[in-house]
Write a structure and sequence with these properties.
- The chain has 15 helices and five strands.
- The protein has 372 residues and is an alpha+beta fold.
- The protein has a three-stranded antiparallel sheet, with no helix packed on it. It has a two-stranded antiparallel sheet with strand order 4-5.
- Strand 1 and strand 2 form a beta hairpin.
- It is elongated and about 85 Å long.
């Protein structure tokens, strides 16, 4: 009994000594799923930032000898039962089936290609200035297609990495627009109230009554089809950001209504602070934790939105690529039946969305570091 009391007293003293930020960090580390999800998200963003280095091939590199080739089988034991420390793949040759007219690939067990780190391959320019041909992994001879190829012989794994650069960046940039508009408009609505609040809330209600997917599609279809890929990308980002701010604005309005009568707000008004200073120095910082959690949970919505538009042919256009655009080629049942590996981009969408949701749940749990 005395031992348990000493342990409880020790924990209470620890919670008393630590600062709120330290308490939040400690509580976040206890959320194991959230920590793992955060690590995965960080690894994904590092990979897409250095996509040219981590991808074995360029996203446009084609190989006519491997059209719609299935994923390579990575092995450690060869046909003679010998164990190798370094993984390897057998070389493959493709022949067209005279009945189905599809390529059938067979492995040549007499030719092994070992997978190595930091191998030379396609030339690229990292960040547009650093020229190199060193890739994180690959084979020195022949080819390595971890996730297979598409109908043009392009490496699906490399295209998924490049596609993640678009899909994941749209989530970040779109949420930045969402947070700016939602926080600012919600603060204005809650702080001023009256007719300004009524106009803003009625406008939000009108936007929220329109089905989100239908509104995305309508605005995306309004983009001229002759626009370059870069402008289409920017257009999709703006569309997703301009539509998604309404929920955050209402939440921020409620928070501001609860704190606008506080003493520190009155003190700032008496001191002659401008509304802009009150917004950005007093109101928004006091609800920043809620905004961060909402932003984290909104990123998956942006990723799914872009993927949906690109899958329907209304989003990103070639030569750019995204996870949704990669899934566009499996809209037919026959393609899914004969080339199931082309569905793998959907797996990366699911992983990224789940990781962002887990991280958001962890952040939501640690907003109040003194809670149990």
């Amino acid at each position: 009994m005395d031992r348990d009391m000493r342990i409880d007293r020790k924990e209470n003293d620890e919670y008393t000594i630590l600062t709120p930020r330290q308490l939040m960090w400690k509580k976040f580390l206890k959320h194991k799923v959230g920590v793992v999800a955060t690590i995965i998200i960080i690894m994904m963003y590092i990979t897409i930032i250095f996509a040219e280095f981590f991808a074995p091939y360029d996203k446009t590199t084609t190989n006519m000898d491997y059209l719609s080739a299935p994923p390579c089988r990575i092995r450690f034991i060869d046909s003679q039962r010998r164990v190798h420390i370094r993984p390897f793949v057998y070389r493959r040759t493709g022949e067209r089936d005279p009945k189905t007219l599809r390529f059938v690939y067979t492995e040549d067990v007499g030719k092994k290609d070992f997978i190595k780190l930091f191998v030379r391959g396609d030339e690229y320019r990292l960040f547009g200035s650093i020229s190199s041909n060193i890739h994180f992994f690959g084979v020195e001879e022949d080819t390595l297609f971890l996730l297979g190829t598409d109908e043009r012989g392009r490496d699906l794994f490399s295209r998924i990495i490049y596609g993640g650069r678009i899909s994941l960046s749209i989530g970040i940039i779109g949420v930045a627009i969402l947070v700016f508009l939602g926080a600012l408009i919600g603060t204005i609505s809650g702080y001023y109230g009256g007719w300004i609040d009524n106009i803003i809330q009625r406008f939000i209600e009108i936007l929220r009554t329109i089905p989100q997917i239908a509104l995305w599609m309508a605005l995306a279809a309004a983009l001229p089809p002759t626009l370059p890929s870069t402008y289409v990308y920017l257009g999709i980002v703006i569309i997703l950001g301009l539509i998604g701010w309404t929920g955050l604005a209402r939440e921020v309005r409620g928070k501001v209504l609860a704190i606008r009568g506080s003493d520190f707000v009155h003190a700032a008004e008496v001191a002659g602070a401008s509304p802009g200073r009150i917004f950005f120095k007093h109101l928004i910082p006091n609800i920043s934790s809620h905004i961060i959690v909402t932003a984290t949970l909104s990123i998956p919505v942006m990723i799914i939105g872009e993927s949906s538009l690109s899958f329907l042919g209304l989003g990103i256009k070639p030569p750019m690529t995204s996870w949704g655009l990669l899934l566009n080629q499996v809209r037919e049942v026959q393609v899914m039946k004969h080339f199931p590996w082309l569905l793998l981009p959907a797996l990366f969408i699911v992983i990224s969305v789940l990781c962002f949701n887990f991280m958001g749940d962890a952040l939501r749990d640690v907003i109040d570091p003194y809670s149990k």
